[in-house]
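Researcher: I'm preparing a figure for a lab meeting and need a structural model of a single chain. I don't have an experimental structure, so a prediction will have to do for now. The sequence is pasted below. Please return the structure as C-alpha cells so I can convert it later.
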Amino acid sequence: MDTRISSIASDLRAGQTPPEVSVRTFLGWFDAQRRRYRIVQNIRDELAKEGVRTVPDFETVWIDAPIRFVLSEGNGVFVNFEPKVPGEEPLKAPETVPPGRWETREATYKVGRLAAANQGIVSVPPDKSVAQAVTIMMLGGYSQLPVMTDEETVLGMLSWRSVGTRTVLNRPATLVRDAMEPHHEVRSDVSIFDAIQAIVANDYVLVRGVDGRITGIVTANDLSLQFHDLTEPFLLLGEIENLVRNMIGNAFSADELKTACNPADASRVAYVETVADLSFGEYIRLLQLPQNWSRLGIDIEREVFCQSLDAVRKIRNDVMHFDPDGIEPVELQQLRQFTRFMRQLASVRV
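Model: Understood. Here is the structure written out cell by cell.
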C-alpha cells in the first residue's frame, strides 16, 4: 500500500498540515481511477490503520474535488473509574467487541458529485448591458447567465426566455438588471433526486457549495449526459446476457443446464430450469467444457470466448455495485466490443 498515508499521519502528529490533493490524485496513490467498493474499503482500512481521515470524505464528493487530511477522533470507550472503596471490587473497563471493517457511509447521491456542479460558472454583473450579456451567451453557447456581484451573491438570471419575453412585449431592457428573472439554486449536499424536478422545470439549477460560493450550474443537458454515462454499461450488459442466452438457450436441456451449478448447492441446482436462471459464472462453466461448446455449432475459439465472457463478468460485478464515477473507459470499450461481437454472431445464426 502507498506509504504516503503513513507520512501524512506522521506530519499531522507533528503539528504540520499536509497539502490538499484531489480525490483523483488520492486514488492514484492506490493505483485506482474509480471509487470501486473494494478500492474504497482498502483505502479506508489504510486510513484507519494510520488514524487518518479525509475532509470532506473522499467517497462523497466530486472526483476532482480537493480533500485534506486530519487525524481521526479516538474510538475508545470512556470509563469513569472511581476511587476504590474498601470492601468493594474495583471497576473494570468493559470488554469491547472488535468492530467490523465496514464504516457507515453516505448513501445519498448528492448534486455535488456531478462534474457540472463543480466546474465554475460564467456570470454577468447587473450593470452590464444586455447586448454584452447576449454576446457572451452566443459565444459560449449558454442558455442562461447568473447575474452576480460576487462569488456568493446571486441577484437573478438572464436567459433567452427573459430577454425574448421583454422583446415580444415591446419592453426591451438596456441593462441586465432590468431583464433578469428569479434564479433557482440548490445546495451541493442535497440529493440529486431532490434537484431533478427543479432542473426539469427550470432547465437548470445553480449549485451552492457548503462554503456559500456558487460552484457550478447543472442543466437538463447535464442530467441527460449523466444518465447516459450511468446507464450505458447496464444496457450493454443486459444485451450481452440476452445474446448469450439466445446462443445457448435451445442447445441444452434443463438437466444439462443444472450441471453448470455448484453440485453442493442443492437449492441452486433445483432452482435452475432455463438458461435465464444461470449466472454469468455458470454460463462460463457450461461453455468451458469442449463437449458442450461443440453443441453450439460455431467455429469460434472456445477458450478465447470464455476468457472474454469472464472479463465481462468481472466488469458486471463492479457495475452492479453502482459507482457514480462510472466504469473505466477501457472497460466500457470492452463491453461495446463484446456486444458488437455477439450481435455479429447472432446476425449470422438467424
